[in-house]
Amino acid sequence: MKNAISWFEIGSSDLDRATQFYETIFDVKLNPLDLPNIKMRMFPIEDSMGVGGAVVDSGGFHKPSSTDGPLIYLNGNPDLQKVLDRVEAAGGRIMVPKTQISPEYGYMAVIIDTEGNRIGLHSIPQ
Questions:
Q1: What is the DSSP letter of 43?
Q2: Mean pLDDT, to the nearest integer, of 3-12?
Q3: What is the model's pLDDT at position 119?
Q4: pLDDT digit string (tens) for 89-113?
Q5: Pick from 64, 14, 20: nearest CA to 39
Q6: Where is 8: in which H helix or E strand?
Q7: What is the pLDDT of residue 58?
Q8: Beta-carbon neighbour count of residue 101 at 10 Å?
Q9: Is residue 116 predicted with pLDDT exceeding 60?
Q10: What is the pTM (predicted TM-score) of this model?
């Protein structure tokens, strides 16, 4: 098993707002994919075999939460502070500021996105 995670979905109640939030904080363009029962805005990936994920509007199947469910960590490399510096202006808030895990495992932080989801960020020193 190359990665423990192969796909993740971040629920949203306002897909346009959530898309703008993630595009702003990561300075990327999310790719739209609208299916009959779910609308997705997928994070870019470099390798089709890499870990992928999307912000989704599933009509209620996903429930945004700041306290319940798994906590996923998104890649904040090369320095997650640059991502954190854009969170509040984009409409989110910082729950746990940049915190060193250890010199070899890097840094982590936790944010609340515009949809009320608790999302972790992680970066490893380059």
A1: P
A2: 85
A3: 95
A4: 999 999 999 999 998 899 999 999 9
A5: 14
A6: strand 7-11
A7: 82
A8: 12
A9: yes
A10: 0.86
CATH class entry, domain 7-123: alpha beta
Q: Nearest-CA neighbor of 121 among 2, 12, 35, 10?
A: 10
Q: Where do the structural domains in the chain lie, given as residue ranges?
A: 7-123
Q: What is the mean pLDDT of residues 46-70?
A: 84
Q: What is the DSSP string of 78-120?
A: S-HHHHHHHHTTTT-EEEEEEEEEETTTEEEEEEE-TTS-EEE
- Asked whether the beta carbons of 114 and 64 are under 8 A apart, the reply is no
Instruction: Tokens for 8, please give them.
Output: 């993740």
Q: Which of 44, 17, 15 is nearest to 29 (CA)?
A: 44
3-state SS, residue 20: helix
Q: Which of 32, 116, 18, 24 is nearest to 67 (CA)?
A: 116
